[in-house]
Amino acid sequence: MKRVLTFFGAPGVMLARTVRAGAREGIPWRETLAQVHELGGRSVWLVMSGMAFFGAVLVMIANAQAKKLIGNVAVLGPAYFEMLVRELGPAVSALLTASRAGASHSAELATMSVNEQVEALEMSAGDPYADLVAPRVVAGLVGVPLLSVLGTVAATASAVLVASVALNIDGRAFMDARYVDGWDVLVGGLKVVACGLYIPLAAAVAGLNARGGAEAVGEATTEGVVAASLGCLLIDLTVSLAFQFVRL
Question: What domain of life (predicted)?
Fold first, then answer.
């Protein structure tokens, strides 16, 4: 029970402390730009390549199912594109980002904690929430939505290519946006913004609570990745259920 309360409550407490410290101390924008590069720039190839493989596999699965039911996979193209924009693009891109950036943030902050660099920062009148956590949160809010857009583009491009080359059908059907409306974009946008907020907070909780030596850094890294990934799945489910409840 304690672990459940920590999982849900600790990132919320971390967010409150970070907002308060950022408002009081200001946000170091040079460090923020460095974190945008760390989260976004170093994750872009993982997200784009992962989403490209994901899009290709989805088309192959859709083709196998279409042969059994309707015989023409091209008619699934518009529904595929809507699902990619609303559900799969945001969720899978966020998970891929959580696996790399979550590990990076957790390991870096855990190393600073066990080496007493965080205590040294506080003794020199610094604030770890404003100086360390706030730049990562801003980077998450900027980087994860951008990565989701690039990942969705990569998945769409791979679907078009696989459909055209491997399945010998009109691949343009898989970028048909006739079923995509503003609500789909809103649902996808809410998911990536929430995940962009949650990933650095979960990683910061794991990293700043690390105590001990190298073993503690490893444990904090694992905890950060697991918490960030599970949080993204929970956010995806919560937003989807909320909009299904109001039938949007």
Answer: Bacteria
